[in-house]
Specification:
- With 238 residues, this protein is of the alpha+beta class.
- 39% of the residues lie in helices and 16% in strands.
- It has one domain.
- Strands 2-4-3 form a three-stranded antiparallel β-sheet. Strands 6-8-7 form a three-stranded antiparallel β-sheet. Strands 1-5 form a two-stranded antiparallel ribbon.
């Protein structure tokens, strides 16, 4: 039986290209949440495949991963990250995944060693922990825009049946893992990103356009004559 999310996908509406001054202000909004980056630089995104039988759970896993990153709470006195407590209902409200897709995404993350869980608690709440936050060779973060309510519209719009959405999620996570300057700008080497995410150059370029349409990035031009070198401003999840 097809999942409810797949029967009724939420359309992603294109947004007008915003002036650089506006995106600069947006890049500094909200709160930055630490994200483990070593696994990304080591090619871990290649495990999330887009072929038949893998696409839906790969997209679900990356949507769930971003949701977990931006729902971290304060750390404990011992310096260890506190568990991220999310019920199925709240996870659905945040990123739009149905219960079966949450289970599929969680299993994929567990299989890759990217999270640990303490099992279901009362009310269907799961205690997640991100692995690899400490120690980490690379500092990375994902910023979430201040907003009323729990819904992350961009993640709701990236449904699990659309193959291009996998490239969009991989590209956003890859960009976030590069570490930006104070203005949210990162340098993207398309060739390197392609090899370490198992995503073709064409799909990455298309993903950049898709990210800009939904307000998660802004392309700032190329620092050289090589089309594979891009300057991109990474914007907060909203």
């Amino acid at each position: 039986m097809m999942q409810p999310e797949l029967l009724h996908p939420i359309p992603v509406r294109a947004r007008p290209v915003l002036p650089a001054s506006v995106t600069l202000a947006r890049a500094q909004e909200g709160r930055a949440f630490p994200m483990p980056a070593d696994w990304i630089h080591e090619g871990g995104l290649r495990a999330f495949r887009g072929d038949a039988g893998y696409l839906g759970r790969s997209i679900a896993a990356l949507k769930l991963y971003l949701t977990l990153v931006v729902n971290q709470d304060a750390t404990s006195a011992a310096g260890e990250p506190s568990p991220i407590l999310l019920s199925y209902e709240r996870t659905t409200a945040l990123c739009g995944l149905s219960d079966p897709l949450i289970c599929a995404g969680k299993k994929a993350l567990l299989d890759q060693g990217l999270v640990t869980t303490c099992g279901d608690r009362q009310g269907g709440t799961i205690a997640y922990r991100l692995t690899g936050l400490r120690p980490s060779k690379a500092a990375a973060s994902v910023r979430r825009a201040p907003q009323a309510g729990a819904r992350i519209a961009a993640l709701h719009g990236l449904t699990c049946r659309q193959a291009p959405n996998l490239a969009v999620l991989k590209t956003y996570i890859w960009l976030s893992a590069q570490g930006s300057d104070r203005d949210g700008v990162v340098f993207l080497d398309v060739d390197t990103a392609s090899g370490l995410t198992k995503t073709s150059h064409v799909k990455i370029i298309a993903a950049l356009a898709g990210l800009q349409e939904i307000g998660l990035t802004q392309e700032l031009g190329t620092p050289s004559r090589l089309a594979e070198q891009r300057r991109v401003r990474v914007l907060p999840l909203r």
